[in-house]
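Re: the 112-residue chain
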Amino acid sequence: MEELLENIQEFIESGEENLRKQRFNAAVSDFFKAIVIICDYLIYKEIKIIPKNHNERFSILEKYFRDTYKKVAELFQIYIKSYNSRSTKEEAQILKKYAYEIKQNITNKKQT
């Protein structure tokens, strides 16, 4: 579990650095990876499974964490778009905002 938390922090810090350097595709990728790891953390805390891939993760999120699933599925579209086109600062900011929101969610759950 501690490794997941460390990975989350590393990707958020990397996303922040890439955003500052205006590397928006890299920032989108880093913030989405942080979000995915946060989802894995939530899934593990609630149902004791760590997903093996995006398909398994989305399936579990859809079944057990519907609101999170809807938001992450929406953000996944921004992430995959970054493979073939240039991401914008606004797109990177959207992923950053959600990464911090969902991270706050796990921080609050850890304290209870």
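The chain has a mean pLDDT of 94.
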